[in-house]
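$ fold --in a.seq
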Amino acid sequence: MTQTHDVPSLGNDQLTVMSPTPPPPKFTRWWDEQCSLPTSWPALLHGELHQRQLGGTAVNGWPAIISAVAGFSLGAGGSLITKRFSSRPAQIASSWWFGAFLTALALGILAWRVGSRGELPVYAFVLVLGVPLSIIDWFEHRLPRIVVVPQLVGAALGLAFLCVARSDPGPGLRALWAMLAGAGFYLLLAVLVEGGVGSGDVGLAAVVGLVTGWSSWAELAGAVVLASLIALALLLVPRNRASRAVPFGPCLLAGMTAMLTVAA
């Protein structure tokens, strides 16, 4: 005897065809990933950022966008420093948009790699003052100590705050020794190369040592090597070769920025 089972029939109103939801476009998914914000300020202080990976490289959408916009405004204000301390300002160098563009570019690229870590405001402060210093040194061959000293003090206070917030004095002590090493190295150059290195260069070397030494001694060494290579390349320019005058400020800041960006 074969048993049969009744199969309930479904009416047309009970049949629902579920069509698969198409995935969002690739660019939309990528943008959402890059623009995800960190969720807690303690995480920012302790360096725990919301990073995404793109080909093995850490990228941060929102910090880069915000830093670039802020950098444009701060760079426009920094152009006032350029005009104040330049006796022969070139028209393009002293215009507000030139400083704004350089600052926005530097902060945007740096934030793209550093992310929302607590170090970002310190690095940004150094670069905001570093752009007008570079322009002044490029045209005037001098670095006003009235700008370099606040740059050094502000960076030191910012990093000291991070040491206290994270209860970790190790990076701060290394940064302090790196600051002394950088300043000492350029002070030695000032003694050996008469007239080639000034007191402003020594002060800026202390800033570079402080900021790069916060992460590692390798970053300081890389920044000094890159700065030396850039200075050597500038010395090969016929105009600089005749006067034998190379602005070390832009070289130091370029080397520092490159190392902070690459090593982040």
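$ fold --in b.seq
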Amino acid sequence: MVDPGFDSVEGVDRWVARARAKAERYQALKARTGEVVVTEASRDGLVTVTVDSTGNLTDLRITDRVRELSGAEVAAAVLAQVRRAQAKLPEKVRQVMDATIADDPATIATVVGAFTERFPEPPPEEPADAYRAWRPADGAGAPPPRKRVRGPDEEDDGWVDQSVLDE
């Protein structure tokens, strides 16, 4: 059976023109999606992150208050904001797709679904400084500083076994 749209050269030309227009829209979609970025800051202002359309971290800003935290606390704060920023990507991508290929809801649903699966909603953000909640403010109950253990072949080099940051 012959497709009625292809019964003439004009029909083929219309089909080619529609295919080219669709290809141009998808190229525009690809370019606009590649420009998507999300910036997210913690409620306490300690950490601000930016992720690109692939979820990769492209900018990280940490205030000087970071000196009050352990490495684990800083890492937890950064990762929490990265996850929050990534979780906003599906909606940003949906907005770009709606503006570019609104007449193709199946493609929009597939792509946004893939983004949602890759970047799920993180648990609700805890109160500011929640990553510090486990450590008493006065330091009571904190583990004692670790001492460096010298091997049997090591000489005393005269250095105190204490971090300069503990002074």
